[in-house]
Here is the input.
Amino acid sequence: MDATVVCIDQAKKSVQIEPRAALFPHGTRPSVELSGQRDWTCLLGAITVLGDRFFSRFTEYITADHAKHFILALCKEFEDDLIVVLDGAPYFQASAVTDLAARDDLAFVTLPSYSPELNPVEECWIRLQAALSNRFFDSLDELTTAIDSALDQLSIPNEGNYF
Here is the structure.
């Protein structure tokens, strides 16, 4: 069977609204303004053994419909059969997604629970986090611009090392 293996995973990135730790001169009384906003974005990412990569950003929590449309877009992108590797996230287990397995050109493989080290997309999220670390984003627009820039420059892990 000639098939393309596609690994999919999700991540959530938020605008840092409050400092977790800071250094101030002894004896000073620091004042930090907090906006109270909790802006964030969710990401769905997919990579293949050939180094193809696909990322989508969402302004709401990822649902089964988001996952379904993402997988259907991958099916449209590739002309051969797909083997889609997923984790146990509830939206991947919903009938909107699992019903897609009835297609002849699509098969699902679910990773064991609590095993992110088996999904190569997790390595992408680690690299994205490293690119975004030690930076403060005032707004969601700044964060999404930084995410897009980091994803464009992201090196893809070798999927073959995972299987």
Q: What stands out?
A: The first helix runs from residue 64 to 77. The mean pLDDT is 86. The two ends are 17 Å apart (CA to CA).
